[in-house]
Amino acid sequence: MSQQINLVSPLLLKKRYAFGLREMGLVIGLMLVCALAWAGYLHYQAGVLEAQAEKKEAQQAEAQQVLDELTIASTRPVSALLTERIKATQAQVAQREALLASVGKTIKQTSTGFSPSLRALAHGSTEGVWLNGFTLSPGYVALKGAALNAGLLTTYIDRLGTRAPFSGMQFSGMNAVLAASKGESASQTTTLPDHLDFDLYSGSPDKATAQGGSHGQ
Description:
Layout: H1 21-75, H2 80-109, H3 115-123, E1 129-137, E2 140-147, H4 150-161, E3 173-178, H5 186-191, E4 196-203, E5 213-216
Antiparallel strand pairs: 1-2, 1-5, 2-4, 3-4
Helix pairs in contact: 2-3
């Protein structure tokens, strides 16, 4: 009878671990890749935030510049030339409103024969030309007013000639002078811009009768 005895101790056998050097290297490499990816993402986010901050700073600087310009503009004195132009425009508007109101009142008060002529004067206005007074009689017509220049006065005369009551009428006399040459007062020269004062005549005042209507300012 024989018996086999194993004299090799189990402690001396080579053990195989579940995580060897290769597996540990793979894990460390994966962690390094993840760390690099996270760092890249953080860098990208930092770049985006920095670009937004620069944009906000540029907008704030632009807004501050606009605010500074408005502040400087608000402290500037009012332009004297602009003030004079505003006063001149207001004076022209006031004269036209007064003339239109007077013409409308005169249309109601005068005879029926002169209503078309008064209506033609009221609706035949030209920008830059205004009437200060007029006389309408069967044989005599006189218009007194002002114009910013001679070209506007010519346009006004041509436009007035297209109106039925004045169609074919020719003005036999005209006087047009610069406002400054007439020795106007200082208050008027500062209120009104440079313009021409004109007088237009058609017919003879000797032919005027009591049937005529007149208005002046």
